[in-house]
Amino acid sequence: MDFNLTEERQMLQDSLRRYLTDRYDTNVRNEILDSETGMSDRIWAELAELGVIGALFTEEQGGFGGKGFDIAVVFEELGRAGVVEPLLDTAILGGGLLARLGDDDQRALVEEVIGGSLHLALAHGEPAARFDLSRVETTAKADGEAILLNGRKAVVVNAEAAGYLIVSARESGGAFDRDGISLFLVPADAQGVTLRGYPMMSGGRAAEVTLDNVSVSSSARLGASGKGYSALEDVIGAANVALAAETMGAMQSATELTRDYLMTRKQFGRPIGTFQALAHRFSDLLIELEQARSAVINAAGHLESSDRDRQIAAARNLISRVGRLVAEESIQMHGGIAMTQEYELAHIAKRIVMADHRFGDADYHLERFIELGAA
Amino acid sequence: MDLNYTDEEKAFRDEVRAFLDEKLPQEVRDKVRRGISLGKAGHDEWHRILNEKGWLAPNWPKEFGGAEWNAVQRHIFEEELAAAHAPRIVPFGLSMLGPVLQKFGSKEQQEYFLPRILSGEHWWCQGYSEPGAGSDLASLKTRAVREGDHYIVNGQKTWTTLGQYANWIFCLVRTDPDAKQQEGISFLLIDMDTPGIEVRPIILLDGEHEVNEVFFDDVKVPVENLVGEENKGWTYAKYLLTHERTNIAGVGFSQAGLDTVKRIARAESANGKPLIENPHFAARLAQVEIDLMAMATTNLRIVSGAAAGQAPGVESSMLKVKGTIIRQEINDLARRAVGPYAMPFASEAVEGDNDPIGPDYAGPVAAQYFNNRKLSIFGGSNEIQRGIIAKVKMGG
Ligand SMILES: Cc1cc2nc3c(=O)[nH]c(=O)nc-3n(C[C@H](O)[C@H](O)[C@H](O)COP(=O)(O)OP(=O)(O)OC[C@H]3O[C@@H](n4cnc5c(N)ncnc54)[C@H](O)[C@@H]3O)c2cc1C
Predict the structure, then answer these.
(1) Angle at which helices A229-264 and A308-334 pack, to 10 degrees?
(2) N or C end of chain B: which has fewer CB within 10 A?
């Protein structure tokens, strides 16, 4: 057992933290939040240059990391700083699928992702699917040489910026079958693709995507026909580690902001942190934060193991519970100031709470954990 | 003890329902349901409709134009309003200032101000909090100095809810800086059109302009606008806070909120079944409903006790704490119930008159969840309420 980061990861963490501390303060981020694209191209380019995107891919994939702990290190830092740029979507989900399933041409795009010149989005979830990963009703039907895609995809994060959408569609089977789901690499400007874009509660943008007789050739398929599900599970597993780490990073910021505020804000002639009613609750947050850190370590350390899914379910359930506690208690112990959009904690709290709505909330992961434990 | 509504009370409920069916415009209900702000005109219109019926001020005595309902009637009214997705009645003039003027105001003040609260001519906001004086309200610094028949006011208020719509503000100001904190405070009524007042918006974490900062720079206020006696403002302020708190139990809101959660959970599916049948979700929902059933009775017990002449002292603190915990829990359930469709930021700019992005119930839930974190902060935070309960019950 060794709970230290490797030298490379430590360097990555240090340089990313330094960069974000210098360049991604509340004002910069609030400008990004208000911008039309909901992200900063400059920040994106600089993150790529720092190697942050490359760290999310293995050497065979063209990067220099890609393991659970690489993902955790990067996303913890992104979470601390409340970064809204779509690394999860472009790199972990989109890039992850290309790297796993792509042919030579498709894999060549991974290089562009790592270099920062290409954005991707995973168009998988559907309006009625909630968190059910295998529920795909979008269809892919042969039409002569071509394949026609029809359906609707819900809350597709980063769709507007993406050069390509990776679309899941059913080639066979019923609405919930794992078999029969294929993945297609669809240029975002393909005829029949319509986006209705909007900002999200915790920053960044997403879109409702309608696919109306979108015609692609069979070479657009990623991997084998009807066999996309297991790769989806892989990248969503990685995304869950990323989300857990990001949330844990954000929880750290929330507790640090709360500590500083408790020590400086005075009411009744004394710092409010000297009221035991608050001091004990602050301590509870720190206790739960350590739990969250361990849960992330468990999940990250098992990303390549057979116990992966159970560990991930455990981490996301725990972090959803204690994340909510940290977000709500931090706001409460600040008082009114934390309710204002400009204040750092407001954004951080939103990142923590809204993570619940991607790839499963506390209940979903609790059920997964029970199911997997029984299996 | 009799937990049944009397025939009279049932008839009253029917009357309220019939009134809402007829008079509450559908588009207003839709806006409230979708969490779209009504703007000043929308609120004014709803107040006008209620006032025409004589129902705008349920808690005011008849002599001042109120409905003078008892606790059970008010409870029924509140329940029906919330269930119909009626806009909330803006409390500052009606629930806060009104009772203070009725108890402590001069005859002239009562005659001038109370009708204008009802007619909507005056929109009031509450100028209590300051940047340095939140929970410790008595440390407020905004200064009023008597000069002839005016006070000259200097200082800053903050968190002023809907101050952007208001033309009047009631303020706590310091008139005697040398007295003990609570003893140097006065209660002033200030016309917002007076030169020297500046209102600046504060945008809350849900993106809404709900609160403001209000700056006072040599603002001249006629001495007639002092309520009661100089330096006795703290007494009036506390009286007002008790009224603010009874309403904050929000049982009607919670009941309507719970109905909304059920509606969402019937429409959403998880693993191919309605979410409402999911055992984990159903258990959470049941737990809150159980709490709320008891809370509704606690509320009635306490409020009706007060109507019979008992002051709802420390119990109002209990109502506030438990009431807000329940409301916040319901907001959390609603947020979870919608799954991924909680993520879109459904501002008016995005949705406007367009179709909602996801199911129509999904739009406001995340914003409401974040916005209602305020419930346990304002009106005396839940920590302050717990402090009061402990102090009173342990003989402090
Ligand atoms: C949305 C919103 C609307 C509002 N509208 C109005 C309005 O219209 N008019 C108006 O005048 N005010 C308004 N307020 C202000 C509100 O009343 C204050 O926010 C509240 O009094 C708390 O003050 P504070 O925010 O300065 O927090 P602080 O008083 O600084 O408190 C910070 C934290 O310390 C805790 N704390 C403080 N003292 C103690 C203690 N002795 N023991 C234990 N814990 C303690 C508090 O509970 C809180 O958790 C509004 C606030 C909000 C958020």
Answers:
(1) 30
(2) N
Rounded-to-integer distance, Cα B276 and Cα B333, Å: 11
Is residue A109 less than 8 Å (CB to CB) from chain B? no
Cβ-defined contact of A363 to B345 (cutoff 8 Å): no
Residue B380, exposed/middle/buried by CB under 10 A (0-12, 13-18, 19+)?
Answer: buried
DSSP code for B204: B
Q: Are B18 and B10 in contact (CB under 8 A)?
A: no
Q: Does any ligand 1 atom lie closer than 6 A to the CB of residue A333?
A: yes
Read off the DSSP letter of residue A118.
-
Q: Which of B135, B226, B215 is nearest to B175 (CA)?
A: B226
The answer to whether B18 contacts chain A (CB < 8 Å) is no
- Encode pLDDT of B88-128 as tens digits: 999 999 999 999 999 999 999 999 999 999 999 999 999 99
Q: Are B379 and B241 in contact (CB under 8 A)?
A: yes
Residues 6+ apart with CB under 8 A from A125: A153, A154, A155, A156, B340
Instruction: Report d(CA B26, CA B37) in Å as an integer.
Output: 15
Can you tell me the ipTM of this complex?
0.97
Strand partners, A150: A139
Contact A132 B370 (CB under 8 A): no
Q: Whose CA is nearest to atom 26 of ligand 1?
A: B134
Give the dihedral sign, CA A180/A185/A188/A192: negative
Q: CA-CA distance, B164 to B39, in Å (whole number)?
A: 10
Indicate which atom in ligand 1 lies nearest the CA of residue B379.
17
Rounded to whole angstroms, what are the CA distances from A314 to A80, A231, A372, B248?
22, 21, 10, 38
Do B357 and B351 touch, CB atoms closer than 8 A?
A: yes
Q: What is the pLDDT of residue A3?
A: 87
Average pLDDT, chain A: 97
* Whether the Cβ atoms of residue B80 and residue B16 lie closer than 8 Å to each other: yes
Q: How far apart are CA A42 and CA A46, in angstroms?
A: 6
CA nearest B176: which of B221, B129, B233, B96?
Answer: B233
Beta strand A266-267 with A270-271: parallel, antiparallel or unpaired? Answer: antiparallel
Q: Are strands A164-170 and A120-123 parallel, antiparallel or unpaired?
A: parallel
Query: pTM score, two decimals?
Result: 0.97
Contacts by B303-309, CB closer than 8 A, 24 or more apart: B303/B71, B303/B74, B303/B75, B303/B246, B304/B70, B304/B71, B304/B72, B306/B71, B306/B246, B307/B70, B307/B71
- Spatial contact of B304 and B71, defined as CB atoms under 8 Å apart: yes
Pinpoint the alpha helices (H) of chain B: 7-23, 26-33, 39-53, 71-83, 91, 98-104, 107-119, 233-248, 251-267, 279-307, 313-337, 348-351, 365-371, 382-393
Cα angle A239, A134, A296; round to 5: 25
Is the pLDDT assigned to residue A41 strictly greater than 90? yes
Q: Is the CB of B377 under 6 A from ligand 1?
A: yes
Exactly one of B78, B210, B230, B244 is catalytic; name it.
B244
Task: Please return the burial class of A138, using the count of CB atoms within 10 Å of its CB with bins 0-12, 13-18 and 19+.
Answer: buried
pLDDT at B313 over 80: no
> Under a CB-based contact definition with an 8 Å cutoff, are residues B69 and B9 in contact?
no
**Tens-place pLDDT, residues B11-38:** 999 999 999 999 999 999 988 887 788 8
Q: Binning pLDDT at 50, 70 and 90, where does residue B247 land? A: low
